[in-house]
Amino acid sequence: MFQRFAQICAAGAVLAAATTAGAETKVPFALDWKFEGPSAAYFAAVDNGHFGEAGLDVEISAGQGSLDAIPKVATGAFPMGFADINSLIKFLDQNPGAPVIAVMMVYDKPPFAVVGRKSQGVMAPKDLEGRVLGAPPPDGAWAQFPAFATANDLDVDAITVEPVGFPTREPMLAEGKVDAVTGFSFSSYLNLVRLGVPEDDISTILMADHGLALYGNAIIANTEFAAANPELVTGFLGAVAKGWADVIADPAAGAAMVQDRNPAADVALEQRRLQLAIDANVATDYALENGMGGIDAARMETALAQLAENYEFQTTPDMSLYFTDAYLPDAAMRMLK
């Protein structure tokens, strides 16, 4: 049922995307979250003309979490989006044949983290035992917690998990109502700073530094749209890589682009958020050497095995269903520096 509905919607998306403004093809793009520092790369691709050079007129829409863009792209409401690949893998396992796939890895090192207060005794994974962990149920980092717990030999029965909402997550930690939270490292850290928590009291436990081989967020595409418009998708991905290279070279300009779309944003804070994402998640050794966008097959196999600790697969995991490099531009066009 989902597959048939999605195919009908995808066909609509292809037709919608074929609508042009002048010589440019309209491509709506769904982000995972609101307009913050890490969104700057996509705004740079617009403002610096990279999408235009590829013949694209891209409209960027904010999202509401790591899972948000997946059904939007799968149903064809958006031909392209940005989402957590681990959530995508689970979605495709539950909806076999849904027309959505990752086409470019962005967060080579995912920002999944446990962020705690040193003054409340949380500095390392084992410190979570005997304490209260705030976790939004739809949070991408929370979804990885079982494998993180296994990798760090945590007694999960000794951890009190408090379900929290995204808007209340950091305020509850700042007020001492929980001792740590799950979230994206760059967002939770700086949200706490903005709430007045001293930086030397914040501990960021990045799951990728504590046993997880998982990847993070990727550009996703509706498969029918991509098959019908391969050159367009490749042009889109090349423009995204150029946008990231731009904000890596000039993060202050990137933060200003965020503020242009989100006037309430603190430009200095968003510049720091962007820089944190660049340093920890995007400009990794692998991406700097190979160009952004690809994956290492052996690492992905390990990641799938770790996902199986968090999630019971209905079918045998198959990497080719979740990620393809068929639309990536040449590596020389994806270099970040």
Treating each run of at least 4 consecutive H or I residues as one helix, how many helices? 15
Overall pLDDT level:
93
Let me know the largest β-sheet: 6 strands, mixed
Q: What letter string, H or E per element, gives the SSE order?
A: HEEHHEHEHEEEHHEHEHEEHHHHHH
Distance between the termini: 45 Å
Name the assembly state: single chain
- Shape descriptor reads globular
Which residues sit in consecutive blocks of at least 5 with pLDDT less than 50?
A: 1-21
Portion of residues in beta strands equals 15-25%
Rg over CA atoms: 19 Å
What is the β-strand count?
11
Which secondary-structure class do the elements indicate? alpha/beta
Percent helix among the residues? Answer: 40-55%
Topology (elements, then pairings):
Elements: H1 2-17, E1 20-21, E2 24-30, H2 40-47, H3 50-53, E3 56-61, H4 69-74, E4 80-84, H5 85-94, E5 100-105, E6 112-117, E7 132-135, H6 140-143, H7 145-151, E8 160-163, H8 166-174, E9 180-184, H9 185-194, E10 202-206, E11 217-222, H10 223-228, H11 230-249, H12 251-261, H13 267-282, H14 285-290, H15 297-310
Parallel strand pairs: 2-3, 2-4, 7-8, 7-9
Antiparallel strand pairs: 1-2, 4-11, 5-11, 6-9, 6-10
Helix pairs in contact: 2-11, 2-12, 7-15, 9-13, 11-12, 12-13
Structure description:
The chain is of the alpha/beta class and 337 residues long. It is 44% helix and 17% strand. The protein has helices at 2-17, 40-47, 50-53, 69-74, 85-94, 140-143, 145-151, 166-174, 185-194, 223-228, 230-249, 251-261, 267-282, 285-290, 297-310, and strands at residues 20-21, 24-30, 56-61, 80-84, 100-105, 112-117, 132-135, 160-163, 180-184, 202-206, 217-222. Strands 1, 2, 3, 4, 5 and 11 form a six-stranded mixed beta sheet that branches. Helix 9 (185-194) runs antiparallel to helix 13.
